[in-house]
Amino acid sequence: MAADPRPPLLSVRNLKTYFAQDEGTVKAVDGVNLDLYPGATLGIVGESGCGKSVTARSILRIVDRPGRIVEGEIHFRRPAANGGPSATVDLARLDSNGSEMRSIRGAEIALIFQEPMSSFSPVHTVGNQIIEAILLHQKLSRREARDRAIDMLKRVGVSSPEERVDQLSNQLSGGLRQRAMIAMALSCHPTLLIADEPTTALDVTTQTQILELMRRLQREDGMAIMLITHDLGVVAEMATDVAVMYLGRVVEQAPVDAIFHAPRHPYTRALLRSIPRMRSRSRERLTPIAGAVPHPYDRPTGCPFHPRCAEFMAGRCDREAPVLKPVGDRHAVSCFLYE
Amino acid sequence: MTVASHAPLLRVAGLQKFFPIRKGFLRRTVGHVRAVDGVNFHIDEGETLGLVGESGCGKTTTARCILRAIEPTSGEIFMRRGNGTVVEMGALRPAELRALRREMQMIFQDPFTSLNPRMTLLDLVGEPLLVHGMKSRPEREERVADLLRRVGLRPEYMRRFPHAFSGGERQRIGIARALALQPRLVVADEPVSALDVSVQAQILNLLFDLQKDFRLTYLFVAHDLSVVRYISDRVAVMYVGRMVELAETEELFKTPKHPYTAALLSAVLEPDPRTRSRRIVLQGEVANPAAPPSGCYFHPRCPHAIDVCRTETPAWQEISRGHFVGCHRAKELQLVGVE
């Protein structure tokens, strides 16, 4: 794939989101750079504590207290209104509860979560919650909004949507709830959909259905997807580009094929070696990564991966922090091996 | 009681577990959830049987029945004791059952909730020793130190509490506790699914080494087929309380005979973007075990269902040596596995 001639839809520069706590400051996101192009799917992978979810919440400006964006820019290209030119805004500088952010959040940037059980209110019908989202962002009558909600439920493959629309979320199965969640997220035609572990809580056969559905809706609506997951299989299946995160930083970003077939960063390589595969022979020893992800208060100096890295260079990796540098076409790595 | 040195370590015959559904003021039983509905299998000494299926398929209930954590509704569970005698667990008196329990232990899924936070490692790992009669404290400490070393933890940590350890280390503590009484059968219920990807391989390798060193027999319950393929000698697949297929690992993965197994295999997402292919997308969702469909429970979702599948329960048949399947069309269908 050649470099995309269009400007990115979303471009994150040196984003830092810190949580100041009594025990010290947790640098959950510590200098993240990302680019996401219109209609593309960017997979963000990493283990627990790598900052992938906080990055997403920073973009939506819904970071929980005491978390705060302390530095960096989040450039988001808003679609042209009434034939006018598209404009770029820096989300990091907007008031998180101001009218501009509220008109973007849920409308132009939508979010689906991992946990379909807890993301709907248990006391309102699924339909009313979707209708509320529609009425918030679009000038429609309640009647029209209800029809739109039923249409959306039909589009995401909910059978008998006219009945489901009046049900409570606990009357739906996990798979149906995730479909209803997607219906709600897409009801305002977002240009960017952030999906945070969308299939982690689902069974494998249901996961296949939901991923297939997301792919079809992306084809039809053309939105970009930021897919956050710890599952390398999901990323390989869905993403066009991948960013690998470790302890609040992007350590490698590349087109999906390069990440899986020509990984450069020692962490990406070790991660790919450590997972059991369907096509490998059974009962062969795996090559694990030594140690564990460090505790957030106990951040290593220099490169955050150096205590676990097989290619650790003493005096360098533990003193200086590497920065993301291009090593190929749309391929960037943050490691001293490539400097 | 019979003496048979070549009998399998564990044999399960016609196991059923129904949970009553109670409703109304009088808590009258209005129906049953057929959690496990007629399951047959055996495990030989020193081997690993993988038990896979989606949520609600009865795999955990089967494991709990074997450990006698819950009383089965019907069926027999035979265990071969260390002295070669075969006992049926349902026929044992409580004192005999307690003695037998030393020989089977469990490793739990969640290392964050399965360890008492107020107990030190010494107490956690030493408790089973104390309960089963090791009263001398120095002797216990020595044994605990030995166990900790065996699972890759430093004995100096003996007086610390579990919160000081990472997920992977906590899982090692759980394993040390399970091994304290030198069991012969270890039931591991999703032992790596709560862990970070990079840590899973460490624990899988550890389980592997311990099996060789102590001649352990594993019943490995999991939903992740790549992990199951890695660890198991044979694999059993369950669907809505029934076993649908059981075979040697390589054979089951290469030549599945049940359409559900084939669908599960095709739903596994490989960490390789070049293997994206057309997957078998099953329609609908897993059947409700309180009101299962007629005939073969899988027929409403099966792409190969014919009339007989709707009316008759398929027999559990051995179609080639050691390969069991419960499907009317097992002999004629040509299903695709993992190459």
Map the helices and strands.
The complex is a heterodimer of chains A (339) and B (339).
Chain A: E1 10-21, E2 24-36, E3 41-45, H1 52-60, E4 67-78, E5 87-90, H2 99-104, E6 109-112, H3 126-137, H4 142-155, H5 161-164, H6 174-186, E7 192-196, H7 204-221, E8 224-229, H8 232-238, E9 241-246, E10 249-255, H9 256-261, H10 266-274, E11 325-328, E12 331-333
Parallel strand pairs in A: 3-8, 3-9, 6-7, 7-8
Antiparallel strand pairs in A: 1-2, 1-4, 4-5, 9-10, 10-12, 11-12
Helix pairs in contact in A: 3-4, 3-6, 4-6, 6-7
Chain B: E1 2-3, E2 10-23, E3 28-43, E4 48-52, H1 59-66, E5 74-80, E6 85-88, H2 94-101, E7 104-107, H3 121-131, H4 137-150, H5 167-179, E8 185-189, H6 197-214, E9 217-222, H7 225-231, E10 234-239, E11 242-248, H8 249-254, H9 259-267, H10 307-311, E12 317-320, E13 323-325
Parallel strand pairs in B: 4-9, 4-10, 7-8, 8-9
Antiparallel strand pairs in B: 1-6, 2-3, 2-5, 5-6, 10-11, 11-13, 12-13
Outline the structure in words:
The complex is a heterodimer of chains A (339) and B (339). With 339 residues, chain A is of the alpha/beta class. Chain A has one domain (10-108, 190-338): P-loop containing nucleotide triphosphate hydrolases (Rossmann fold). Chain A has helices at residues 52-60, 99-104, 126-137, 142-155, 161-164, 174-186, 204-221, 232-238, 256-261, 266-274, and strands at residues 10-21, 24-36, 41-45, 67-78, 87-90, 109-112, 192-196, 224-229, 241-246, 249-255, 325-328, 331-333. In chain A, the strands form two sheets. In chain A, strands 6-7-8-3-9-10-12-11 form an eight-stranded mixed beta sheet, sandwiched between helices. Chain A has a four-stranded antiparallel beta sheet with strand order 2-1-4-5. Chain A is globular, with a radius of gyration of 21 Å. The mean pLDDT of chain A is 89. Chain B has two domains: 7-103 and 183-325, P-loop containing nucleotide triphosphate hydrolases (Rossmann fold); 118-182, no CATH class. Chain B starts with a strand and ends in a 14-residue tail after the last strand. In chain B, a hairpin with a 4-residue loop joins strand 2 (10-23) and strand 3 (28-43). The radius of gyration of chain B is 21 Å and the shape is globular. Chain B is of the alpha/beta class. At the A-B interface, helix 7, helix 8, helix 9 and helix 10 of A face helix 5, helix 6, helix 7, helix 8 and helix 9 of B.
